Structure formats: C-alpha cells, structure tokens
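ugh ok fine here u go
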Amino acid sequence: MKQTIVIKVDVINCNNCRAKAMETANDMDGIESVRLVNRENIVVTGDGVDAAKLCSKLKKKLGFASLEIVKEFKETTEDNYGTNPTP
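structure:
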C-alpha cells in the first residue's frame, strides 16, 4: 500500500541537519519521494515503508523526531484535476 508519512523534525536553523534528515529518510527501502515542508516537517511517500522505524532512525540522527501523520496516498489524475463539479 502506497502511503504518505509526515514526521516533525527540528532542523529549522541547521543546513547540515536538513541534509542529514533528507539523506536518512531517503536511505529506507520503499521510499519514492522525500520533501521538507516549512523546515520542520519531512513528508515521505513510499510503498511498504515502516513509519515507526523511519521515525526512530531520524530520532537517532537528529535528536528529535515525532511521527505526526500516516495516511494512504491518493494520486490526482488529469481527468478530475482542476474541474469544479456543477451543482
């Protein structure tokens, strides 16, 4: 099952910490994409990713990581993107 995982990390003022966080998250099996949002949340998309293990790895590398959201990933298609249904 493809899922989206959001983990809160403390990398606001440290460029090296951001790089460590992105690299650590990207090293896991099944990861398709990793994004840093607002310099405090890492958003990971992947198939079969162990969210708890990922959070634990980030906590060991950075000192703080908190698992915020795990949800099923839903792709947007071109058919329904940008169209407003009429009542």
